[in-house]
Design goal:
This protein is of the alpha+beta class and 287 residues long. The protein is built from 5 helices and 17 strands. The strands form 2 sheets. It has a 13-stranded antiparallel β-sheet, with helices on one face. Strands 5-6-9-10 form a 4-stranded antiparallel β-sheet, with no helix packed on it. Pfam families: Oxysterol_BP.
Amino acid sequence: MMETPLLAAARRQTDPLVRFVHVCAFFFAGLSRLGSHRKPVNPVLGETYETVFGDGTRVYCEGSRHHPPETSMLLLGDGWRLSGQAVYTASFKGNTVNVTQPGKWLLVLYDNTGVETNRIHFTLPDTIINGIIWGKRAAVYTGTFLVYDETSHLEGTIHFTDSRKKGRRVDECDMSIVQVTDTEKRAKWHSKKRDKKDHPKYGSEISTAQGSYVKEFVWQNQVIWRYSHSIQANSPVPLERALPSDSRRRADVRLIGDGDFPAAQKAKETIEEAQRRDRRLRAGESK
């Protein structure tokens, strides 16, 4: 599910700050998809996925790296284009897995004539998954979620780290919006101190927002997004004529869907061995 109506609302705004807030709400609303836990399946280099959402948004994905897993994505909507790389690195500590997402993302907005109006960069927060070995499985965000509009020089930072310390639910967050006045100082600062909460003097805070990624996003006492009002119908529709490399054609995935787990495990091992062989061949060619 994608809250693409928020991007349509953003494109209608003439005030740069209001437009930026709606874009931030779009990203914020996507965090509610955290609660999907499924059997992990190692991606195959060159594996693809293509689909279309109910509102016409087209999605193209391809596995562009095996280790660490990386998926390159392109989403095309009505007057906007989103692209980037989903990259995951994980570290284990006892009953917990810490997941970082260092991939870079870019959202481009266009006016009704097709002229580019805004280029917005964003990074994704880290995730802590508890209950890996025992106990109840739970995943929460931590660190910061950074959104930067290089056209309007607006920066929004959503903070997750201190939620528990404040005695609030872990899904509740605060966002600060800064008007950047020194782009060079900003770039230098973020290259070294990206996760610091205090802002250096490369701009001034002009607004704030609050919310819960499982409830709502509020700015200036206005509810910009509410989970209960999500468009449930805006879900991906499988394409009948997908590429041969489409992930839904994988033998292990189909067998998991059929409930034949022993056969799925064998198919998974066959795919992974082919992947390892391909990696050895590529390594040999590079010498």
